[in-house]
What we know:
- The chain contains six helices and no strands.
- Helix content is 75%, strand content 0%.
- Helix 5 runs antiparallel to helix 6 (97-118).
Amino acid sequence: MNITKEQIRIFITNFYTKVNKDELLSPIFNDSAKVNWEEHIPKLCQFWNSIMLKTREYHNNAYQAHVNLAKIVPIKPRHFEIWLKLFSEQAKIDLNPLAAEVIISRATNIAKSLKIGMLPATN
């Protein structure tokens, strides 16, 4: 799989530009989480560099940050569906087919884990 930090940066920047335009996702990031995108995009790139390139440059706890967010804003399965749809679409645009396939697979697995911590348990 041939992917570079620069390709990841371009992909993440383009992807979150779309997230910011999405009527369901944008309010979560901008109104509830109050994300500072100038600071957050580099962190997201570090996260995905660590996942895809094994750089070990990401040192925060992404899982806990998302669980904490779910305590202040109701997160629904639909949020995950839209996020993964936009992620997959952009990966297929910005990355070579193998890299897109791998990053989509990893994002899907991460989303499954996040759902456990973020969505209310159903009986």
